[in-house]
Amino acid sequence: KAGVTQTPRYLIKTRGQQVTLSCSPISGHRSVSWYQQTPGQGLQFLFEYFSETQRNKGNFPGRFSGRQFSNSRSEMNVSTLELGDSALYLCASSLMVQNTEAFFGQGTRLTVV
Amino acid sequence: AQTVTQSQPEMSVQEAETVTLSCTYDTSESNYYLFWYKQPPSRQMILVIRQEAYKQQNATENRFSVNFQKAAKSFSLKISDSQLGDTAMYFCAFMKLLGNEKLTFGTGTRLTIIP
């Protein structure tokens, strides 16, 4: 069974640009969560999707958005990139909503210059 | 809001020895889960062990065990017979049982196993 796949693995963008990151969950998993990991702030929850609906959102500005498709794949978008958005973005998938057994992808390393 | 505190930024131990990583948390919830995740250099977060707060028995997974003290809000991880592959960042995490399913992470402990 394939694990959680995040693409791309690495990304370099310029301030002001926008970026879209992709996450393909484990087959059959319907819940996808996103986390931002930085040296200064640690791991912070961005949002969670289940059956194409955003169920929970962390304390991030509106520049951060996401969506989930009918096949459970999820994308997150960051508009008007700032230097502080440089981070490792991790996606986690789980079978159901109560993700007590969340499986993480290897993340997308975003660098904003 | 929940908070998770890991007071040991870095630790190192000789291979085959036992090491204990500390974690404390603060919550007003009575039903929740606690986790230890491992993040090796590959960056992928891997679930090491999980504890349901309503279970008094401490969880164990092979060489990994926890000491869960609910009243003290303490959740430490013990790694026995440590191996080189245990070298990684270890994160303690909290999740409410119902409603808000997000994981709240601690700041992590960088563990190095010395050959």
What fraction strand of chain B?
A: over 45%
The tally of helices of chain B reads 0
Query: Strand pairing plus helix content of chain A: what structural class?
Result: mainly beta
Nearest-integer average pLDDT of chain B = 94
End-to-end Cα distance of chain B, whole Å, is: 41 Å
Number of helical regions of chain A = 0
Average pLDDT taken over every residue of chain A: 93
Number of strands of chain A: 11
Fraction of residues in H or I helices of chain A = under 10%
Shape of chain B: globular
The succession of helices and strands of chain A, N to C, reads EEEEEEEEEEE
Helix content of chain B: under 10%
Could you state the oligomeric state of the chains shown? heterodimer
Gyration radius over CA of chain A: 13 Å
Taken as a percent bin, the fraction of beta residues of chain A is over 45%
Number of beta strands of chain B: 12
Task: Describe the protein.
The complex is a heterodimer of chains A (113) and B (115). Chain A is mainly beta and 113 residues long. Chain A has strands at 5-7, 10-13, 19-24, 31-38, 42-50, 53-57, 64-68, 74-78, 87-94, 103-104, 108-112. In chain A, a hairpin with an 8-residue loop joins strand 9 and strand 10. Chain A starts with a strand and ends with a strand. By secondary structure, chain B is mostly beta strands. Helix content of chain B is 0%, strand content 52%. Chain B contains no helices and twelve strands. The model of chain B has no long low-confidence stretch (mean pLDDT 94). The A-B interface holds A 31, 33, 35, 42-43, 45, 48, 55-56, 58, 88, 90, 92, 97-107, 109 and B 33, 37, 42-47, 50, 91, 95, 97-98, 100-108.
Give me the secondary-structure topology:
The complex is a heterodimer of chains A (113) and B (115).
Chain A: E1 5-7, E2 10-13, E3 19-24, E4 31-38, E5 42-50, E6 53-57, E7 64-68, E8 74-78, E9 87-94, E10 103-104, E11 108-112
Parallel strand pairs in A: 2-11
Antiparallel strand pairs in A: 1-3, 3-8, 4-5, 4-9, 5-6, 7-8, 9-10, 9-11
Chain B: E1 3-5, E2 10-14, E3 19-21, E4 24-26, E5 32-39, E6 46-52, E7 60-61, E8 64-69, E9 74-79, E10 88-96, E11 104-105, E12 109-114
Parallel strand pairs in B: 2-12
Antiparallel strand pairs in B: 1-4, 3-9, 5-6, 5-10, 7-8, 8-9, 10-11, 10-12
